[in-house]
Description:
The protein is α/β, with parallel strands linked by helices. The protein has nine helices and eight strands. It has an eight-stranded mixed beta sheet. α5 packs across α6. The mean pLDDT is 91.
Amino acid sequence: MTGARQARWALEESVRLLKKGEIQAVVNGPVSKEWLAKAGFRFPGQTEFYARRFGLADPAVTMCMVGPRLRVALATTHISLRRAVGGLTAAAIVRSGTHLAQLLKAIGIRKPRIAVCGLNPHAGESGMFGKEDQKIVAPAIRRLRTKTRLSFLGPEPADTVFRRALQGEFDGVVALYHDQGLIPAKLLDFDKTVNVTMGLPFVRCSPDHGTAFGIAGKGKARPDSLMEAIQLAKVLMGARS
């Protein structure tokens, strides 16, 4: 519990320093959401915490994963799969797609090519396996093309789109719910992927992994993702200046 209280204090301290203008970026370490909740933390995760502390609604920010081989943005984050599917909106897809485009440009990709996952198997197979891809996802993609003037393709079948991105067909992928995007991101580049929150008035990065209490004190933990987060924060700060 002591560690959770310290983590909660550190989060609040980072907000204080940001609002005073003493820092312009934050790199968080991994936290235990379970233990933070026991310590009185009333947010699903750090993404939602920073949004609320800066007067933003949860839908205003986007969780993104940036790795050496795959970049992913999530339309929904820390909610149940039932809520993610039932509450999926075109606005959420447009927001996450716009943020992903901004992120890709910030890391040096001038005209990013972005795929948007379908929700249903085979992206709905023209309505055979569900109507959401036709009624929600496809209109959102059309709005993204108009809004950004960039290449947004989809809805693409989620069981093949990440392989295509890995082969260089896309610079980034918009996933519609948490595990749809994070499973491939962590499978490919677990030790190098960085969690980036887009939509905040400052740069915020963290490792993509959790606390790994099971190997604490055993000399097995690797710092790679944290080091990548620090380096990416520097790049994103430079893009803002």
